[in-house]
């Protein structure tokens, strides 16, 4: 009998091992490396071994990681109705996958294990008012709460965000009262955040199909979902094709509110990762001048980087307006910004027939105290200054040279580079 019992125990043990190894994470964590978030707070995160786990979890790195991991949990709630993960093996697998994404961002290879206990993401009734599913939530709080009204809108708007915060505070008080255990206050707060992001908010948590929806991270620009841009441009159809710039293709699009935009899909990006792209977006979004076409928004999906500008009708040059726009880029902002692709097709007319400089896909910001930048040559053949084309030395004079070519085109009524004939290209 003892032998039989031992055999049964051994089989149970093997089945447990098999179950553990077979566990897979139900969350798609690809967004971790795609969305803009401040990963720098975890670059040098090495708490002392003697630091209590509770204290470590309050540090900036762990708070940031919890927010990022929470996006996946909110999506999981939306898809499964579960507020947490179903079991410990699944939680372990998800945290291992999460760490793999953090590894690709060059973060410490143990940062997830330092911040999190796998059990904290396993569903149990002993977290907040015995709530485990959205059905339990409705049973405890009713079909509608203050969250359903206060957190539905675009929360990048500060007024809407404040309204949602007040609604969350109200619901939190109710949950803690129902639970009767004040020590569960943090868990109840986490559930409120997950419910607001995954169930209530009309833009939803982060998805692979879209970049950060309607979020303006210190930029003033909207982060669009890819499927919204596909709809606006009729899936980037040929009939909406405007032209090709020095960095990619440009399509005409119409947003749901009727606004006509130019959607620019970058094909040959110089940006070293998502963080650099977000930094450039922030720089360009802060440019405000009557002779510059403003950046309306952007989208970032895996290797795709897309910029959205207002679409200006017509392509005729008004020299003085262009000169003012360039002067602002070179001397009106610090550090200066070099456009790198000044040409006739990047100078557009607005409704008042005022010229604006557009297409900042190749723009570079100068460095304080340096007379020039040395960078990979980019731009349009025929408009490049010789010292930039030959040696990659970029200054404001590079833009001035390109601007001079545009002026010469106007004066002569000819293109800078004539490619119309079958013979060799002809230049001025």
From TrEMBL:
TM spans (from-to): none
PANTHER family assigned: OS01G0750732 PROTEIN, PROTEIN KINASE DOMAIN-CONTAINING PROTEIN
Source organism (scientific name): Hibiscus syriacus
GO cellular component, as recorded: plasma membrane
Catalytic reaction annotation: L-seryl-[protein] + ATP = O-phospho-L-seryl-[protein] + ADP + H(+); L-threonyl-[protein] + ATP = O-phospho-L-threonyl-[protein] + ADP + H(+)
The organism's place on the tree of life at top rank: Eukaryota
InterPro entries: Kinase-like_dom_sf, Prot_kinase_dom, Protein_kinase_ATP_BS, Ser/Thr_kinase_AS, SPARK
Domain Protein kinase: 236-428
Stretches of the chain forming a coiled coil according to its record: none
Top enzyme class: transferase
Name of this protein: non-specific serine/threonine protein kinase
Keywords: ATP-binding, Cell membrane, Glycoprotein, Kinase, Membrane, Nucleotide-binding, Receptor, Serine/threonine-protein kinase, Signal, Transferase, Transmembrane, Transmembrane helix
């Amino acid at each position: 009998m003892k032998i039989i019992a031992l055999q049964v125990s051994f089989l149970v043990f093997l089945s447990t091992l098999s179950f553990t190894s077979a566990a897979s994470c139900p969350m798609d964590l690809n967004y971790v490396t795609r969305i803009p978030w401040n990963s720098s707070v975890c670059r040098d995160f090495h708490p002392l071994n003697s630091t209590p786990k509770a204290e470590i979890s309050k540090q900036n790195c762990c708070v940031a990681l919890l927010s990022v991991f929470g996006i996946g949990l909110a999506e999981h709630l939306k898809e499964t109705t579960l507020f947490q993960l179903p079991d410990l093996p699944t939680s372990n697998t998800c945290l291992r996958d999460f760490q793999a994404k953090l590894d690709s961002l060059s973060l410490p290879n143990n940062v997830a294990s330092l911040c999190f206990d796998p059990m904290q993401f396993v569903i149990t009734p002993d977290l907040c008012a015995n709530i485990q599913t959205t059905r339990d939530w409705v049973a405890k709080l009713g079909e509608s709460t203050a969250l359903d009204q206060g957190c539905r809108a675009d929360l990048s708007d500060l007024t809407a965000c404040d309204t949602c915060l007040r609604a969350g505070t109200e619901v939190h008080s109710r949950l803690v009262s129902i639970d009767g255990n004040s020590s569960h206050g943090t868990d109840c707060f986490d559930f409120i955040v997950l419910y607001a992001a995954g169930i209530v908010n009309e833009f939803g948590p982060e998805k692979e199909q879209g970049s950060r929806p309607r979020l303006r991270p210190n930029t003033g620009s909207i982060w669009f979902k890819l499927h919204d841009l596909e709809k606006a441009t009729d899936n980037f159809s040929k009939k909406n094709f405007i032209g090709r710039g020095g960095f990619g293709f440009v399509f005409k699009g119409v947003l749901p509110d009727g606004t006509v935009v130019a959607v620019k899909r970058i094909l040959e990006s110089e940006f070293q990762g998502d963080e650099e792209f977000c930094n450039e977006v922030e720089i360009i979004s802060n440019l405000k001048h009557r002779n510059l076409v403003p950046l309306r928004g952007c989208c970032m999906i895996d290797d795709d980087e897309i910029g959205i500008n207002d679409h200006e009708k017509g392509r005729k040059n008004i020299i003085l307006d262009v000169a003012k726009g360039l002067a602002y880029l070179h001397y009106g902002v610090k550090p200066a910004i070099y456009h790198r692709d000044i040409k006739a097709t990047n100078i557009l007319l607005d409704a008042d027939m005022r010229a604006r400089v557009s297409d900042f896909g190749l723009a570079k910001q100068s460095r304080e105290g340096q007379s020039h930048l040395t960078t990979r040559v980019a731009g349009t053949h025929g408009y490049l200054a010789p010292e930039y084309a030959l040696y990659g030395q970029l200054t404001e004079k590079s833009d001035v040279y390109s601007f001079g070519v545009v002026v010469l085109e106007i004066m002569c009524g000819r293109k800078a580079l004539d490619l119309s004939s079958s013979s060799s290209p002809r230049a001025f």
